[in-house]
Amino acid sequence: MNAKLACKDVRIKLMGLIDNEISGEEKEDLLKHIEGCPSCKKIYNEFRTLKKETKEMKFKKLPEIYWDDYWTHVYNRMERGIGWILLSIGIIVLFSYGGYEILRDFFLDPQKPFLLKIGTGTLTAGMIVLFVSVLREKLLIRKIDKYRSVER
Asked: Could you tell me which residues come within 8 angstroms of residue 114 by beta carbon, excluding any fewer than 6 positions away?
């Protein structure tokens, strides 16, 4: 078997060896290769050290003030998100009502086909939703646009 191919195969299975997830025969073959191959042995020892260090690693307990600050930020983001949703819905309702008032004679005219009324209503509502969506996006992006001061 090609030595590079064998090293490649061994390196793929190193973590399985370290985690005891391979069979006994395969384990013996890998250990034999590692003993005879300095580069694979070095990688094997590095992985073992890494596993040992990560196993012994402990998370630092944060003081309560950090958690309070975290929840304040989460609450603010949720509050703003709900605010934007309500604002968008309000604008959509008002624009829809305005569009209906403008087109009321059209919708109430019995001579106009029902399908045409549905199409016009759907088109108007879609335009209103898109307008509100683009307006909201532009307002949000305007705050963080790093190219705002660049002249065209």
From this structure: none
